[in-house]
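Q: Entry one of two.
A:
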Amino acid sequence: MQKVKVEDEKPLLGLEVENQKKQKLSLVREFSDESRNLWEIAGPAIFTAVCQYSMGALTQTFAGLVGDLELAAFSVENSVISGLGFGVMLGMGSALETLCGQAYGAGRLKMMGIYMQRSWVILLATACLLTPLYTYSPYLLQLCGNTPEISQAAGAAVVLNASWWLIVILQLIYIFVTKSDGAWSGFSMLAFADLWGFVQLSLASAVMLCLEFWYLMVLVVIVGVLPDPLIPVDAISICMNLQGWDAMIAIGFNAAISVRVSNELGAGNYRQAKISVTVVSVTSVAIGFIAISSQQPSTSPIRQADLRVAIGAGWQSLVAYINIACYYFFGLPAGIILGFKYGYGGMGVWGGMIGGICLQTVVLVVVTAFTNWKKEADEAESRVRKWGGSAAFD
């Protein structure tokens, strides 16, 4: 066979090297562009999350200045009573992130307003069902083993709740005045159509996030059962307060990935959805390393990223099962054993909680890494049809 001359190989090698450089530059450019898109959404979301969280965190700080009982009472109220309702309502409402994100990506802007109205109907009914729990919360806390002093004091949080209502009213005014770029076209009877599919997704979302919030809520209740619980409850509340500041940054940023993933899946751009997940994973790891300097559970940004990817993709039911296994079959039993049997007290309960969070983070990372994004994009329309109803395609 005729040998290829060395002079002929050089241009070929040079062309191959040039193509590799172009591919690397293209990947860098795609990463940079997607990172910019994420931070444009994440910046306002982080600011909003930090401001909202600061209301409870600062109130807790001032309660600590009043006394140990007041700090413990507010911690129980903020983590258990408000956490119960917040977990349910946020979970039921997070179905909007899936449906609105995928509807926007598919170019069906009018359905975003319809989905929001359906969510109002469902959340109003849910709020009515939760009212007795708030009314009789002091008695329920005593049934769970908390002292009468802490239980009664934890039943009086009025000003903080009024502040939350102010935020809701201002958000409504913004929606009604700006029209949200065509997404809001006024009230419609379509809000009452095809509710069952929306309820199914809302319930799956509620279970997923409630298992997340209640894990921390049960932690506070368990610590309250320890001998001489006042100081352990105060200590755990301070740890959770510190964790919350980091979590708000992660939640604000990872709300952006939920939007990006659902938008791209709705538009059928599976490759861009995969790039979004890659960018948010790298960024979350960087945030996690920064968070190490402030507290122990530095997996929070990574975990929040994976949770938001799950919401954007519509994996709420799958994540609910993962939460049950990691939190309630592993984390809580480990915390109870360390705290009570081995005498580590609040520190042992906190350690068990961190173990459950770390295990959940590992599982979510593995699930996300092995996801077939092309298949997810192909199934996006059928999911919107299933959960959002036939009106989305009229």
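Q: Entry two of two.
A:
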Amino acid sequence: MPFELPDNLHPACGPIAWMLGTWRGNGHGNYPSIEPFQFGQELIFTHDGRPFFHYMARSWVVDEQGEKVREGAIETGFLRAKTDGEPGEVELLLAHNTGIVEIWAGNAADGKVEIVTDAIGRVEGAQEVTGGKRLYGNVEGELLYAYDMAAEGHELQSHTWARLQRA
């Protein structure tokens, strides 16, 4: 599906412009403290001309036949293109329905965004997440991503990955 740059796109958002819109698809998850799982997911990136995108993601756990079993994670925040640093510098501010908030920092260029956690906060009772790395890529017009997580005493390792198509 062709993608057109919006007329009011902030110049600093050029390296992340390909992410704008709604993406849907399927993914997989695994971690030492949980059973492997499959999920469906929707990511939405919107903007209003300022140097950031509003981001919202929701997922649902599916069974082997792809049927929805239950609701999954929800996260929302802002993907910010830094205007006072090197071109392509980005930061992501996220809040999760699980009681975790995160600040991520990294770079965007050539259809790829790589970010790592800079700070993590959580409410009492939330999972102890101590670090993360996210990689988003535009591969043949699809959004592929991988999320590595360090949590509950485990070192940074693969947690979820997905392939999403532009809706």
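A: Comment on entry two: The chain has no helices and ten strands. Residues 75 and 96 are 4 Å apart (CA to CA).
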